[in-house]
Amino acid sequence: MSPAHPDRPVQRRELLAARRDFAASPAFQTAQAALSGALNELLAQLEPELLGVYWPLPGEFDPGELPYPRALPFARREPAGMVFRRWDGSLPSAQDECGIATSTGAVAVPDVVLVPCVGFTREGFRLGYGGGYFDRWLAAHPGVAAIGLAWSGAETHFAVEAHDRALTLILTEREVIAPD
């Protein structure tokens, strides 16, 4: 096991650069299809009543159409926080305060949340974009199943900080990681 990366912002930039390269490679579409199949199998077992999804940024896994009621996150910068809003699946016409597409539906609490990962550890922790939005939301909703979605090449090591929240599972195109 390699040591933890000492600088999260540098690590994040390195992982995002690697993800851009991966997204431009022929392997990307194969990985997208594999992760999509694994996600559909997992969700069929979980049967969410309301599934928290995310609007994919470039290079992220795109969960696409899913046969469950869904909600999209809405992030606020001041005070920093996030809620989920019910989403009908149509092209979002709104953006949250971070500039990410979102829904204008009613605020709701999903029972299963898909969480995008810039990086992840085998212990179930994720490296996100640095805003702490998902960590704060998960801390406030401890009973929610949080499924991290990541590319296998994003596995890394970093020192866990007090605000970091472990995910229930991490799903990659290659495996399901169930932290202890």
Task: Provide structural commentary.
With 180 residues, the chain is an alpha/beta fold. The protein has a single domain, classed as 3-Layer(aba) Sandwich (Rossmann fold). The protein is 24% helix and 23% strand. The longest helix has 20 residues, at 27-46. The protein is globular and about 40 Å long.
Largest sheet: 8 strands, mixed
Q: Level of helix content?
A: 10-25%
- Order of helical and strand elements: HHEEEEEEEEEHEEE
List low-confidence stretches: none
Mean pLDDT: 94
* Count of separate DSSP helical elements: 3
* CATH architecture descriptor name: 3-Layer(aba) Sandwich
CATH homology superfamily name: NagB/RpiA/CoA transferase-like
- In terms of quaternary structure, what is this? single chain
Outline: globular
SSE layout and pairing:
Blueprint: H1 8-23, H2 27-46, E1 51-52, E2 70-76, E3 81-87, E4 94-95, E5 101-102, E6 107-108, E7 112-116, E8 119-120, E9 126-127, H3 133-140, E10 145-149, E11 169-171, E12 176-177
What descriptive keywords fit this protein?
180 residues; eight-stranded mixed sheet; alpha/beta
Please outline what is shown here.
The protein is α/β, with parallel strands linked by helices and 180 residues long.
